User: What shape does this take?
Amino acid sequence: MTSQVLFAALILATGAERLYEVVLSKRNAAWAFERGGKEFGQRHYPFMVALHAALLLGCLAEVFLADRPFIGWLGWPMLVIALGCQVLRYWCINTLGHQWNSRVIIVPGAGRVTGGPYRVFSHPNYAAVIAEGIALPLVHSAWVTAIAFTVVNAILLFGFRIPTEEKALADLEPMT
Assistant: This one.
């Protein structure tokens, strides 16, 4: 039971972090719109929000209702990966500055950021989301949640979100 309580605390902390990101995203969206920002992909955005909320709720439901055990050899490495995902996420957020947003909003003339983790690949934040979607549930062996999130997230990311961003960013000049 102790491991379940600690896992619940981890999920609640992750939820609190996501609420902070919502506030930051709204602030950055206002900044972008004040500068003529144009939003893309509005139709898929509510599904992404629902999916990310479902990840957290699914973790809790599966661990408590299905009585999933904490398995040390799996849980500890997954916790390290989940925490590492937060480091990568905030590196992305800091690198993008005011341009970071949970929506796709392009500010004319702002340029496409190519520094920080964006030097390595185009969508490092999504790498963090993918890894976290697997690792976070597996901290407490919630494998059904990990699989379900990963499949639906892959459909949303590769079918909608990344193509939307690539199209929106296509005409921006690179900047570091």
Q: What stands out?
A: The longest strand covers residues 38-40. The chain has a mean pLDDT of 95.
